[in-house]
């Protein structure tokens, strides 16, 4: 991963932005984050500095696994130029929507997070088939 952003990029992204880390092997998003400044680069440094078993071990393990294959995680900025409140909302919506993330937390504003509207099962009927009378 890059060690720093080119001059002026952090200011163009701000004040806040939402980004994702993507496994270049399969194109899968494995982490969603909200940041300001060079926050989106901190995960690569963290993978270099934090001992195994410390920090978000699932995220760091995925970064290390990608690096062991000779690649680096791809970083995509999903939205930029956001207020902090907007960034929290975009981050939470992505965390709710993308399966299999390594995020240690489920985002912010959890009382408004993803929840089923019907009992588990196929379709809105909750697994019951409508009668055919």
Your description of this structure?
- This protein has a domain at 9-101: GIY-YIG endonuclease (3-Layer(aba) Sandwich).
- The protein is of the alpha+beta class and 133 residues long.
- Helices cover 29% and strands 17% of the residues.
- A 3-stranded antiparallel sheet has the order 2-1-3, covered by helices on one side.
- The longest helix is centred in the C-terminal third of the chain and has 14 residues, at 84-97.
- It is built from 4 helices and 3 strands, in the order αββααβα.
- The model is unreliable at 125-133 (pLDDT under 50).
- The radius of gyration is 18 Å and the shape is globular.
- 22% of the residues are buried.
- α2 crosses α3 (57-68).
Characteristics:
3-stranded antiparallel sheet; 133 residues; 4 helices; single chain; 29% helix; GIY-YIG endonuclease; alpha+beta
Largest sheet features: 3 strands, antiparallel
CATH architecture of the domain at 9-101: 3-Layer(aba) Sandwich
Q: In sequence order, what are the helices and strands, one letter per element?
A: HEEHHEH
CATH topology of the domain at 9-101: GIY-YIG endonuclease
CATH first level of the domain at 9-101: Alpha Beta
Shape: globular
Instruction: Report low-confidence residues grouped into runs of 5 or more.
Output: 125-133
Q: Alpha-carbon distance between the termini? A: 61 Å
Helicity, in percent? 25-40%
How large is the count of helical segments?
Answer: 4
The share of residues in extended strands comes to 15-25%
The structure class reads alpha+beta
